[in-house]
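Bit of a strange request maybe. I'm writing a small parser for structure token strings and I need a real example to test against, not something I typed by hand. Could someone generate the tokens for this chain?
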Amino acid sequence: MVHPTAIVSPEAQIGSDVFIGPYCRIGDRVTIGNGCRLDSHVIIEGPTTIGNDNRFFPFATIGLPPQDLKFAGEETFLTIGSHNVFREYANVHRGTKGGGGHTRIGDHNFFMVSAHVAHDCILGSHIIMANAATLAGHVTIEDYASIGAYSGVHQFCRVGAHGYVGGYSVITKDVLPYSKTVSERMTQAFGVNSIGLERKGFTENQLKNIKAAFRLLLQSKLNTTQAVEAIRANLEGPEIRVLLDFIETSSRGVIK
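Reply from user aminoacidic:
Good idea to test on real output. This should exercise your parser:
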């Protein structure tokens, strides 16, 4: 169903069972999958590809040009998976030539009011971005992470899988997987996000392993390199490999 006040480019490809509400605007080179719903006043520009069963609330803006002074109108892309929710005023920008040219979002993510995903960000699946949470360009958010309200993540930073960033935080280094991290004047990790991990099905043994690793990382007198070696020598399991791989591939350092 397309409302009479909506403007849909003849170049757009619209799937089956799609609802496009009043005053929406769909631009050239936009592909919208089956079962999507655009409530009203939603703007989508291309090149943008959107999967199935996504929901866009009023005034969401998707696929607009990046906020980058170097951007000169070159062809860049946005790809969004399926089963995502974009609440009012949420916005996602296409990539930039210098950043790889492609912003990507996975499946089953929830973007609350005024959440912002900038150019060249890579987001996994099952992520929650609360009200006005903001990602600068080139940010990577791994699966099941949560970004609290009014928090900002600096360019090129990563938030690890199942990581939780508390509200009003300013993230300038990588956030460890499984951690709960909050910044005020000083950004620091406050230990394992135990409740969140339990809710997501982590076993008692997995939680024990993760907590032991965090004790070595955060509470011992070891530096990060020494703590990584101690974790490798004393602990094992897929959750430990995720943590070690994340630390060892960090280019900006991790929050401790």
